Description:
The complex is a heterodimer of chains A (551) and B (1012). Chain A is built from 20 helices and 9 strands. Chain A has 551 residues and is mainly alpha-helical. The radius of gyration of chain A is 25 Å and the shape is globular. In chain B, the strands form 12 sheets. Chain B has a 22-stranded antiparallel beta barrel. In chain B, strands 10-15-16-13-14 form a 5-stranded mixed sheet. In chain B, strands 3-2-5-6 form a 4-stranded antiparallel sheet, with no helix packed on it. Chain B is globular, with a radius of gyration of 31 Å. The two termini of chain B are 40 Å apart. Classes of the chains: A mainly alpha (551), B mainly beta (1012). β9 of chain A pairs antiparallel with β41 of chain B.
Amino acid sequence: MRKISLSLILISLIGLSCTKDFSSINTNKLGFKFEGSSSAVPDASGFLPPIMAYIYPSNGASGVASWVYQIQQNFNSDIYSGYWMMAGGFGQGSHVESNYYYYDGWDSYLYLSWSNIVNPFLSIQASAWAYPNAVNQTALGMAFTSKVMVSVRVADALGTLPYSGGGTYDSLGKIYNTFFSELDSAIFYLSKNASSPITTSDYFYGGDIAKWITLTNSLRLELAMRIVKANPTLAQAQAEKAMATGNLITDNSQNAAFVPTGGVEGALTTLYYTWGIGNTTPGADVASYLVGYNDPRLPVFLAPTSTAEGNTASRVPLGGYCTQRLGSVQVPGDVTLTATMFSMPGTGILQSGTDITAHPESSTFFNAAETNFLLSEATLRGWNMGSYTSGAQAYYTAGVTASMNQWKVSIGNYLSTSATPSDFVDPTLPDRDIKAVSTCSPKWDDATSNEGHLEQIITQKWISLWPVNSPVAWAEYRRTGYPKLFPGYLTAVAPTVSWGGQTVDNARKLRLPNSEYSNNTSNVLNAVNNYLGGTDDITTHVWWDVNAPNF
Amino acid sequence: MICFFAHAQNTVTGKVTDSAGKGLSGISVQVKGSAKGTFTKTDGSFSIVAPANATLVFSGIGFGVKETSLNGQTNINVSLEERQNELNTVVVTALGIKKNAKDLSYSVQKVSSEELTTVKDANFTNSLSGKASNVTITQGSGGVGSATNIILRGNNSLSGSGSPLIVIDGIPVVNNNSHPTTGQAQYGQNFLTPDQLSTINPSDIEEVTILKGPTAAALYGSQAANGAIIVTTKSGKDGQTRVNLSTNTTFQSALYKPKMQTEYGGSAADNGTLSWGDKDPNASYAGSFYKDFLKTGVSSSNAVDVTTGNKNAQLYAAYANTSAKGIIPNNSLTRNNFDLKGTTSMFDKFIEFTAKFSYVNQTVHNPLAPGQYLNPYYTFMTLPANTNMSLYKNKNNLTLDTLPFQNWAYPVGSTQTDNPYWDAYKVLTTDNLNRMILSGDLKFNFTSFLNLVIRGNMDRTSEDYLNEMYQGTWTAVASSTGGFDHKTLQSNQNYGDALLTFNKNIASDWHLTAIGGGAIRDYTQTGIDINSGRNGMHNPNVFITNNVNFNSGGGGSIQDVYDRRQIQSLFYSAEIGFKNALFISTTGRNDWSSTLPPGKNAYFYPSVGVSAVLTDLFKGLYSSTMNYLKVRSSYTEVGNDLPTFIINPVSTINSDGSVSTPTTVIMPGTTLKPELTKSIEAGLDAAFLNNLIRFEATYYKTNTIDQLFTVAAPPSSGYKYYYVNGGNIENKGIELTLSVSPKIGSVKWTSTVNFSKNINTVKSLISGTNLLIYSQLANSSAYYQEIIPGGSLGDFYSTRFQRDKGGAYVLNSFYINGVKQEGTLPLVESQAQKIGNAFPNFLLSWGNKFNYKNFQLSFLIDGHFGGQILSLTQAMLDYAGNSVETAQARDKGYVLVNGQQVTDVKGFYQLKAATGGALGEYTYSATAVRLRELSLLYNLPAQIFNDSKYVKGISIGLLGRNLFFFHKVAPVDPEIVSNNAGGLNGQNEFLGLELYNIPSTRSYGFSVNVHF
């Protein structure tokens, strides 16, 4: 035993003296770590793309997988806004979102994606505090605005989020308050440095700080209008604050389009072309409004399909602009649809083999048209317009014109036409045909009430936000009821408004993910009870979605 | 040797021999009533100083005890009777320490070389199946070259690997798979190359010892918490030169085929995929898919080994070549093994030195990954039955003239399928492995009772993985110009230990074996992964790095691979034996691991055990009826360190220059500690009727606490997950082995039954969490594992059709244009229910061997009883209208739902089989009983070789593996499930899920062995 002890001591001397290397052994040499604050870096701008990428998750931008867009946006706001439709059941039969079924495997992604942006944001914040140089402060300003851009669509879809920290959920009202103060912070940091120290990491403006300030002001106006029925006082105050700057996106040169450096394939290109067969088709409402209006943007948005392309049904409706109604997926006894039955994208939007750089107008997330429509509505509401005093009709006209210009089409006599939306004709099944649900025209109707004007404004805004800004389109539809959209054909839940009427209760929110119900049970149940009125399903209205007159 | 001088003492010399007169080494020679004693040398001779009137006691492992009075004699020759078959084997235990089986306080099971090599498999690991109790071998499902999973005594860890440690000649080796999964499981494309245990040349193996519980492996520390598989390789022998030649050829074919309908073809409505069209005489093509596509696999191995040596130096050299072609076209494996082992002793055995060099070169081509993508088997299940494959199978004509497209009848990517021959010939993977292990073992025999062993090895593996996807590969998987992924990995383990062993009678009847030592293990992995990504090739079909387009966003990427771990250890083991019949042992080990937090990086774990050979301890118990009875019990703790780097999260850089911060960190306010496994075990070993019957029984209970959990972090924290310790997973069970070896006339029959039952229970999870969702399929309720206290790790959940209390379906209702429709189809449950548990209730195998003259016949029946699997293969056959059931329903024109005839047959099956549908309906019992092995060997009569100068013997054999099922319920082989993304490396993911796996194989063939 004596010898054993000796050897133990001997070996322990050798052994123990070595453990001081453990820290370096246990450090992953493929990453980097700065002492002090774990995430602070002298140049934090590299953390911007991981936030911005979730505004329009496209193929490979900042490492975001190509399929994220489909389940984060295409299977919910894209279809609930009437823009697009699912091209099939994707192995789920009829149990898919477009039939109002909740499928956690896809729908939870909006929430899961959102969690990806918080960490890079905190890293930028830590860096700006630890290394308060021009790059980091500017990056923090951009990060605040980008964070709100991503978060607002998630908060609007879910109705609540654990936004302020911990696992506790916040009410949407509190979250909007935070959004506004975050936009204040954005302006504060963006205003600190006049030069443009960031170029390659800015997917929107290539480092143009002035444009970021304009975007941030415009975003404030948009968010203010969203809550006008839920908190009119705050809405008015924030809108007036935005308008008082006199610095809003009113010209297409100021539009915020997602254009990553190096160029990536847009998510729509991936859906339409890269995956080889239709993953998405245009929505019926698009054809109804744009064909009915003979809209100059239609040939740019979509290309008509021809009868020859394997169309088993003989119906080629609406001048070949074949689209699908919500709820058309895998109806029992149905003729199965084939991709070639539907309209492909027109020349204006993302095309096969091209990257976003070639079509920035189809990855636009804030445009001059939207601001003009917001100003038009603000005028109707009688708010203090600051320097924006041209009047509701003038801003409506400016909005439509800006959109035509953005898509490089001639407006012609569009603003004097009294055309109304077309009835919908399904390419295969007469049972799905439906009469137009709106009689709204592009021509500004002097005789009508504010309500009638609002329908015109929001309907045109809806057209101008196409093709990828469906989160805003869906939110505006829920807030105002416009544009009037076709009801779902086959739905899992009963419509709450009578079917013969002009409005139907379309999808109002996404359910919170199962993982939250499992992992964060008590907080979720509290949130459902306190902020969602006790139910959490597709018929539940979120805080600002108030069942009350618009005026 | 130590001598004792006293008055009236003589130096007594002599020789101890066995009944045949051969000298016996290592026999204890003791002066009765004193502590004096010695052991015999290799030739059986001994020399001891003893009083003239003393009585000497001779005893040895496996032999009876003999007492001889000296009566003044100074030369004594003793012949010891072998105690017939007394379970007296020497087994190799932790750190290569040889122990008598009867000393052990825990259960070990030995598998001999013969058992492993009679019926060879290209993957040696597969041969362990059914040879020992409580060993679960899960075969790779991707054809030859896919990995195998071993679990001993049930899964116990939530986060880490459940695989046992692999030890070769006393030294742990690296046994990791190199391609961990990245994608979502159901899409596949994740396959693992063979684990490194399977690259061993089976012919080199002298024996394999399976140490099932942590008890057995306590001295190895963390890595052995799941048990250990200890391989001892052959050495050269003193004596004449011997040469062995063996050749072994087997053929493989699919063990089963899914039953497919041959009446209905496809329709344009489904984009040409699926078989929901009209009746079509050409639907008979369906039956030929398998016949045409699946080939007869051939696996052959040729091995030669040479042993030579004299008293002072011995050499063993071996070469083996294995080549196998899988049942899938273009899938193959070739392997070359070289082994050289030299042993030498100097200064009258004062120094013994062993050096060993092993080199393996292995190339695997195109194993398949289960899942939907690029899986020909999946394509076959979804194809219209009237597809004339002969138009698309010419491998020289897989591309059309318009280059970027496959020659395929259907839109590529529709229902995630493409031309299966394209998958085989135009989506190529090559995995080339070079492994070199250099080890040395230096032993100093200071005295007969004290020695020092210093050992070390360098284990170098370099692996080159290449994935080439030709232009035309489905663009969801590759870019429009194809795809390229080249990964090179070097792993490097240096291990060294030193053991000082004291082994002596310390008093009359008392024996002490004590070992103290230390070890250091350092593992590094480095590598580079060059991936073209989705947009990333300049020119199609040129698979070199220069051709990868790194410029465009979303294109190519180059990533480094890095991993590093160091563990330093001190340990001891002490065992006191009383009368060579009662043994009390204790071990302790302290590890310092680089992966643990600084200042808290040390952890200690002990074991204690006792074993008593009652038939030796109480002589009265021994009789010819009861030859042997031993009872044993032990308690062990084993610690397990953390995954590398998790306590030091760092930010990483993406290929486009953007930065990603870590997504998982330690839960704020907590410090991570090592996982701890506590195990208690008790058993008895007995032999009856002159060893005609042997019986072993073990009960064990193992609790693993402080497991590493990954829990969802609040998103607003900026992190996705937190690491935290907690939980308690319990495995308890029994293992029984019964063998009889009667001799009936001139037939010698050995029959062994192994039975084992393991119960896995989740006793608790971390505080604040009472539920963990694991390994969700498509992040949905289609399949997931839910872990709740009181449940089991193997529980899995899915949705089925809703049924009312009477068992009738609840029907689906929905709204069409706002009008409520009472549906005719069943409603799918909105919440998944527990539908099964992947773990078997018990395992039972029955092995038999008959020796008659020069013939040896053996067979092994292996049964897994209980447990469930969820078969996506059967679900997809239904979904696609390719199952026989769907054709029968269409022939009738309806399916019965609650007794009503529902004519929407397609709607019914597509609802049932959709991923978000009632997949749980495809749950089957995993019970299967199969003829695992059958072999007939014939040794040519010895007299034939009397005249031969060189050839000493020839044996030939016929053999078969996995020949047929005596009983099987599931439509697939339940043994190869869950072998895709999870279930490998012992991870507890996707347990019980069968993901369009390629059928398992039956093999049959012959072997020839020639001895020179």
